[in-house]
Specification:
The complex is a heterotrimer of chains A (about 425), B (about 525) and C (about 375).
Chain A (H helix, E strand, L loop, with lengths): L1 H22 L1 H7 L3 E7 L7 H20 L7 E7 L5 H14 L4 E4 L3 H14 L3 E3 L12 E3 L8 H9 L8 E7 L2 H16 L7 E6 L7 H11 L5 E6 L5 H10 L9 E3 L4 H4 L11 E4 L8 H14 L8 H20 L4 H7 L4 E3 L5 E3 L7 E2 L2 E5 L5 E6 L4 E2 L13 E4 L5 E5 L4 E2 L3
Parallel strand pairs in A: 1-2, 1-3, 3-4, 4-5, 6-7, 6-8, 8-9, 9-10
Antiparallel strand pairs in A: 10-14, 11-12, 13-16, 14-15, 17-18, 18-19
Helix pairs in contact in A: 3-12, 4-5, 12-13
Chain B lengths: L5 H15 L8 H9 L4 H14 L4 H9 L3 E4 L4 E5 L5 E3 L15 E2 L4 H14 L6 H14 L5 H10 L3 H16 L6 H14 L2 H8 L7 H50 L7 H22 L7 H23 L8 H23 L15 E4 L2 E4 H23 L1 H11 L1 H6 L4 H23 L11 H14 L4 H41 L15
Helix pairs in contact in B: 2-3, 3-5, 4-5, 5-6, 6-8, 7-8, 8-9, 9-10, 9-11, 10-11, 11-15, 11-18, 11-19, 11-20, 12-13, 12-14, 12-18, 13-18, 15-16, 16-18, 19-20
Chain C lengths: L12 H23 L11 H26 L7 H20 L12 H5 L15 H25 L4 H20 L11 E2 L3 E2 L2 E2 L3 H27 L1 H11 L1 H6 L4 H27 L1 E2 L6 H14 L5 H17 L8 H15 L3 H13 L21
Antiparallel strand pairs in C: 1-4, 2-3
Helix pairs in contact in C: 1-7, 2-7, 2-10, 2-11, 2-12, 3-5, 3-10, 5-10, 7-8, 7-10, 8-10, 11-12, 11-14, 12-13, 12-14
Classes of the chains: A alpha/beta (about 425), B mainly alpha (about 525), C mainly alpha (about 375).
Chain lengths: ~425, ~525, ~375
């Protein structure tokens, strides 16, 4: 009982501290002179709070750790937190506020594609840096943004390859189920093209889109069951987002679809999402990520221990976007130390080529296209809410900004080092969009 | 076990052999299988399971069960396999003898992935065809039906010969038919008979078997299969409609639960209660807290956790409702639209309060065992969880109706909402009745939260996702009429589910909204309009 | 000041003049202080503030449009956000077409989101939006037509009170779902963004922003004058009568539905203009503008400021949104919903007529003798306890 409400006590304390800080606002801003400010742009209320709050805590945790090590360039780091409240225009407004009013030198933030699209013009106009830590649809490379989450080639394609292999069950029939927004649409377009190129027949692919927060999955799960009982091994590739996942998995469990019959591989379901579900009926369903909490490396163990100590919660899980935040933060620190300055232009130029260790025993290198190298892991859900890694990529996969499987983008290339261009057309030899 | 079948004789013989010669290592398939477990490769593990299934060794069942539960341990260096018992003791899988002096820390559990789990199901199916428990035999028959492993055929024949339970017998016959139908070794007549057996099963799986005949099947078998397929598809199409209606009832009962509390606070009292969804959410969180306490202090009660949560959720959210009514709403009677503003503010506060207390992420509310699983009614797959929610929604509705019709407080509520001043002059404490009515509506919303925690996210946003639908249901049914809410919820649910297969989830929902908008033009006071002077208010 | 007092036929009254003076003053001062003064000066208005204030004023115009129908006709529309969003989309489509070959894929006709979802040609409903006058006309026509059709059905069948509120909510919810669909061709959840220029001016330039701000302030002033004119005319008197006793007005021979419909359409057009001005200033239009919660928030602004006072609605919009901006930064960011929620409850309990309404009442009581006939709170617009 105490455990349930201890958080509330801390909250009251924090509110009081916050009020006090507001009251002595003048002294705070005086102190800010000798610190480096870091912006945190994650929703703390509204529909996306469920995912983004953890990333806000992660940045605060990383800032704290860095300060323990003596800060950066001899100064303390100071995190400035704002709440864009899952409201997309508010994201742009808050980004502008962070950069011009609070004078932050870098921002860690955004989760949804639309929030990133909303703040992009602001970062370009005011020439600042955004680290974006979530797997996304690709098709973008901007000078002011660094994408530390997975591009489609670092997550979706390896997962499908695995399912087609003998270990994955030699899947012949595919359901591509997603929430109706850009990430699933693009990922499914890429996957459909890829599957067709691998000889899968058109009638063996079923594509289904549902709205955000869809909660009644009876019909769709029944359709999947029907589609899957045609005698060929069937799998579901799920790009279902956030809130809709819990009712989806509950319905799968209810209708008795086991992973041995129709495995579901998800790209948006991690440890955090599983914390809200009883995973016993889901054992064996899969997820593809670049990080799992269960991966047994010394770096990861240390990170988890420190994270749980920082949050004072021994059960707090870690997940893939957290690792991406960790990599982005360390890459930024390394770049700032390299050029001895927080000036965005210098840091942007210094970042490509920076190598920092990731949490799974490898190295994340920032590439000229502002994506990073990542290993790919496929994990099966276990009954304790964790993932058991059943496959891992051979070495690191470099992130690809423009998919080779989409007609519009197969000729495009991003290179901010040599070409100084995010969308260079290799056929027309021109940099588009400038 | 009567020694009537050759296989049983074989099994017994092998068992005797194994006990007589315990040290005969690397002598048969059983030992080969054990050796394969030690290589830590999924492919080898799956192959080992195939060997175990036909090894005839009596310990094979034990090994497969241990693997399924993660109790099969190996020492890769020594090439030894151990089984950990329920009490933690180790036994050598090769000999069955207790293993003494083994360092348990050095052992690794054999890992399973989906491929291995599939092989486990097939192997344990083949191995438990003779299990004394009919339920296990039924599961075994279904596992064999899925795996269609031709090597199990002799065992299947033996099991079929001695099976007495009709349901199991039928499942065994279907499983046998599924193997025979695709086997080119079987005589043509037998394969045609198999088609008939499969067609009798008549479900989606049977259809899959018939649709996937091997290309070299004789023409006569193919013709028989084609006509059987047509028959099954006709039947399934009819059942498909029934299935959609069932889904619709299920969705309707969810809508009813979400809306019925609102039918009181909004429909009867006229408060535009934007915090209604948050009352549902509080009910869901109450369920979570109750389950946490049960898990911590008395796990044995877990199956009863929802039943315990219902009254607690009712009282808790009812109390919150009374507090809201006494501190805010009561100053706003006669200014209905201002309740919208105040309750909207309250809903923001409640959401954020839950977010700060419990964190922004989803909370896990488990399903008691009696709410998990499915039962087939004809070709209708009825999930227990959904069935209980329908029953529960109806019970809540009837209980509420009874309270309003049959109790004194119900009478007073109706009196106050119909004519406040008259009621007051008859000696009814209208203040108290207002508080109780709002509390009742809120409490009912809390109960709905207990049910919704079973099918949806338990998160601070839970209430938001139901508020629009709830208002729509109440208005569609007719404000101030409980029966209207019932009919409104059920018809919206069924219409939604009948539209969904044709239009898709999104367009179906849009079409439904447009239909409701047009319907309101036809009947501007909803389905069940209140008659008399009340409508001019 | 007064609105319905026949003894004072002045269009604006002192309060109205003060309001107009403030708005027009802002329209001149803010751009001037932004553009003319150096960034270091104490009086300099940073560009950040210009677009923020511009956003507030768009919301103020939107609130004004709600007050016209809610405060003076008694139509509680929970779908006003739909008209706002439609106006915004019309402007957004124009801005998208202006990008031309500067999109990341360099396609001269198709917007980026269509290219990467493999659209081959521009859908028919995108035709014409590259021409500003057409887009500007659509800013008025799209919301206006929707309001006309919807209102014609609803008012003719005498759907009133809460039934009307709920079906307006259903309307905006249906549009929300529709615009979320990527197949609709409006960019799905990502909406329309990454605009480059408007009428040839760089949309990110300080000058453009200042001009947009001035334009918004003028639109608000114009909208205010229009609404004042309407509610003080004979037409407005009938509207107020409908609000207070619809049946009686009908019995005296007025075609109530036509009056309501006209007000509803004007209000929708005003909301559309607000949306069109909003989009270039915030840089994105997305289906979440259709969300029913947004429309409820608009109602809340009006209630906070004071229903039936026009200027109060604008004031409420600015205040609530300023509170939102203020509370979502700094140490209190995680707890700002407590503040906002508490504010709404407090306003309802302690300032039942809204901020401006309460102020006017207080002033009226002070100047004893001549009771101020400000728009009184309307009788139940929704199902109140049946008497």
């Amino acid at each position: 009982m105490l455990k349930l409400f201890s958080h509330a006590g801390r909250v009251v304390g924090r509110v009081a501290a916050g009020a006090a800080a507001l009251a002595i606002g003048a002294s705070v801003s005086a102190k800010a002179e000798d610190s480096i400010k870091v912006g945190v742009l994650h929703s703390l209320s509204g529909t996306m709070a469920i995912s983004e709050t953890t990333l806000k805590d992660t940045v605060l945790f990383l800032v704290d750790e860095q300060n323990k090590k003596g800060g950066l360039l001899g100064k303390k780091l100071e995190a400035v937190v704002v709440d864009p409240a899952s409201n997309w225009p508010l994201f742009a407004e808050k980004a502008r506020e962070l950069i011009t009013k609070d004078k932050v030198v870098v921002v860690f933030g955004c989760w949804t594609s639309v929030s990133r699209k909303s703040v992009l013009p602001v970062f370009k106009e005011l020439n600042s840096i955004l680290f974006y830590p979530v797997q996304y649809e690709g098709e973008e490379s901007e000078r002011n943004v660094f994408y530390t989450g997975a591009a489609p080639n670092q997550q979706a394609i390896p997962a499908v390859d695995y399912l087609m292999s003998k270990d994955g069950g030699e899947v012949k029939r595919w359901v591509l189920a997603g929430t109706d927004y850009v990430y699933p649409r693009t990922t499914n377009k890429i996957l459909e093209a890829y599957l067709l190129s691998k000889g899968v027949a058109k009638e063996d692919i079923m594509i289904n889109y549902t709205p955000f927060g869809h909660s009644d999955w009876q019909t769709i799960v029944a359709d999947i069951k029907k589609f899957g009982s045609a005698g060929k091994k069937t799998a579901v590739v799920s790009t279902i987002n956030g809130d809709a996942n819990v009712p989806f998995y509950k319905e799968l469990g209810n209708q008795g679809i086991k992973a041995t019959d129709i495995p579901v591989v998800a790209f948006s379901v991690g440890e955090e999402e599983l914390a809200g579900i009883d995973t016993k009926p889901l054992v064996g369903h899969l997820a593809a990520w670049n990080y799992f909490e269960s991966i047994d490396t010394p770096e990861n163990k240390k990170f988890i221990a420190e994270w749980q100590a920082y949050t004072k919660n021994p059960k707090r899980v870690t997940n893939d976007p957290m690792e991406a935040t960790y990599i982005g933060f360390n890459a930024w620190v390394a770049a700032v130390e390299k050029v001895k300055s927080t000036d965005p232009d210098k840091v942007i130029d210094a970042l490509p080529g920076i190598k920092v260790p990731n949490l799974t025993g490898g190295t994340a290198e920032v590439l000229p296209n502002h994506h990073i190298t990542k290993p790919v892991f496929i994990g099966e859900i276990e009954d304790n809410g964790q993932f058991d890694v059943v496959w891992k990529s051979n070495g690191l996969v470099p992130g690809d900004a423009w998919s080779d499987y989409l007609e519009g983008s197969k000729d495009l290339e991003a290179d901010w080092v040599k070409l100084k261009c995010g969308n260079y057309n290799t056929v027309t030899k021109k940099c588009g969009g400038s | 076990m009567r020694l009537s079948s050759p296989l049983a004789v074989l099994l017994l013989g092998l068992a005797l052999f194994a006990t007589l010669v315990p040290r005969a290592a690397h002598a048969g398939p059983y030992e080969d299988a054990l050796a394969k477990f030690t290589t830590e490769s999924y492919a080898d593990t799956a192959a080992a399971l195939g060997l175990l299934a036909t090894s005839g060794n009596p310990r094979a069942v034990e090994v497969v069960d241990a693997l399924a539960d993660g109790r099969l341990l190996v020492d890769p260096a020594a090439g030894k396999v151990y089984i950990r018992g329920a009490d933690g003791s180790l036994a050598d899988a090769a000999s069955g003898q207790p293993a003494a002096g083994v360092d348990a820390a050095a052992l690794k559990a054999v890992r399973a992935n989906n491929r291995v789990r599939g092989a486990i199901a097939a192997a344990s199916g083949a191995l438990s065809l003779f299990n004394p428990d009919p339920a296990k035999r039924l599961a075994a028959a279904q596992a064999v039906f899925k795996s269609r492993d031709a090597t199990v055929l002799p065992a299947l024949d033996a099991a079929l010969a001695k099976e007495t339970v009709p349901a199991v017998k039928q499942a065994l016959a279907t499983a046998r038919a599924a193997i025979v139908i695709g086997s080119s070794a079987a005589p043509e007549a037998e394969r045609i008979a198999a088609v008939a057996t499969i067609a009798d099963a008549g479900d989606q799986d049977a259809l899959a078997v018939l649709q996937n005949l091997p290309p070299d099947a004789p023409a006569s078998v193919k013709t028989a299969a084609a006509s059987a397929i047509a028959g099954i598809q006709r039947t399934l199409a009819v059942w498909g409609v029934a299935q959609n209606v069932w889904y619709g009832l299920s969705l309707g009962s969810v809508l009813l639960l979400a809306a019925i509390g609102l039918a009181i606070t909004f429909g009867v009292m006229g408060v535009i209660n934007m915090a209604h969804g948050e009352m549902v959410m509080l009910g869901a969180y109450t369920t979570f807290v109750v389950q946490e306490l049960i898990r911590a202090y008395n796990p044995a009660l877990f199956d009863a956790s929802l039943l315990i949560a219902i009254p607690i959720a009712f009282l808790f959210t009812g109390l919150i409702g009374v507090i809201i009514e006494r501190t805010v709403i009561r100053f706003l009677y006669g200014r209905a639209l201002e309740t919208l503003l105040a309750t909207w503010g309250i809903s923001l506060i409640l959401q954020q309060a839950i977010r700060t207390i419990f964190g922004p992420t989803n909370r896990e509310v488990g399903a008691p065992s009696w709410m998990s699983g499915t039962v087939d009614v004809g070709h209708l797959a009825v999930t227990y969880g959904r069935a209980w929610i329908i029953v529960f929604a109806i019970l809540v509705f009837l209980a509420l109706l009874a309270v309003l019709r049959l109790t004194r407080i119900g009478l007073e509520m109706r009196a106050v909402t119909q004519n406040r001043r008259m009621a007051a002059s008859m000696g009814i404490r209208t203040n108290w009745v207002d508080a109780m009515t709002f509390g009742l509506g809120s409490g009912i919303a809390g109960i709905a939260g207990v049910a919704l925690s079973q099918i949806d996210n338990v998160s601070p946003n839970l209430g938001q996702s139901y508020i629009i639908d709830s208002f729509l249901v109440v208005v569609f049914g007719g404000v101030g009429n409980l029966w209207g809410t019932l009919v409104g919820a059920m018809s919206l649910g069924i219409a939604n589910k009948l539209l969904e297969p044709y239009a898709g989830a999104v367009l179906g929902k849009i079409a439904l909204l447009v239909i409701v908008i047009l319907f309101i033009q036809k009947r501007p006071r909803g389905l069940f309009a209140l008659k008399g002077r009340a409508i001019e208010a | 000041m007064s609105q319905t007092d026949t003894r004072k036929p002045a269009l604006l009254g002192t309060g109205g003049l003060v309001f107009l003076a403030i708005v027009i003053g802002l329209a001149v001062l803010v751009p001037a202080l932004n553009l003319l003064l150096p960034a270091g000066s104490a009086l300099h208005v940073p560009t950040y503030l210009v677009s923020l204030l511009g956003k507030y004023l768009c919301y103020a115009l939107l609130a004004l449009s709600v007050d016209l129908i809610w405060g003076y006709v008694g139509i509680l529309s929970l779908g006003q956000g739909a008209f706002f969003a439609l106006g915004g989309y019309a402007m957004g489509m124009y801005l998208m077409r202006q990008i031309g070959t500067r999109g990341v894929y360099g396609d001269p006709v198709l917007p980026d989101f269509m290219v990467f979802l493999n659209w081959k040609e521009l859908p028919w409903f995108w035709y014409g939006f590259d021409w500003f006058p057409f887009a500007a006309a659509m800013v008025l026509l799209a919301p206006g037509l929707l309001a006309l059709v919807f209102g014609w059905f609803a008012f003719r069948s005498r759907v009133t009170g809460v039934y009307l509120s709920i079906i307006t909510q259903a309307m905006t919810f249906a549009l929300l779902l529709a615009f979320f669909r990527n197949d609709m061709g409006f960019g799905g959840n990502n909406g329309l963004t990454d605009f480059k220029d408007i009428l040839g001016f760089n949309i990110q330039a300080d000058g453009t922003r200042a001009a947009l701000f001035a334009l918004t302030a003028l639109a608000l002033a114009g909208g205010y004058v229009l609404c004042r004119y309407l509610v003080r005319s004979h037409f407005g008197k009938v509207l107020i009568a409908i609000r207070d006793a619809e049946t009686r007005v009908r019995f005296t021979g007025y075609r109530v539905e036509n009056y309501k419909l006209a007000a509803f359409v004007v209000s929708a057009c005003l909301a559309g203009i607000a949306g069109a001005l909003y989009v270039p200033q915030v840089g994105i239009i997305n289906p979440s503008e259709f969300s029913p919660a947004n429309s409820i928030e608009i109602i809340v602004w009006v209630a906070v400021g004071g229903r039936g006072t026009l200027a109060g609605a604008a004031l409420g919009a600015v205040l609530v949104n300023y509170a939102k901006t203020y509370f979502t930064s700094g140490m209190l960011a995680p707890y700002w919903l407590f503040m906002l929620g508490g504010l709404f409850v407090a306003v309802t309990l302690f300032l039942p007529k809204g901020i401006l309404g309460t102020f006017l009442e207080w002033r009226a009581r002070r100047s004893a003798g001549s009771p101020e006939p400000d728009a009184p709170p309307a009788p139940g617009i929704t199902a109140k306890p049946a008497e």
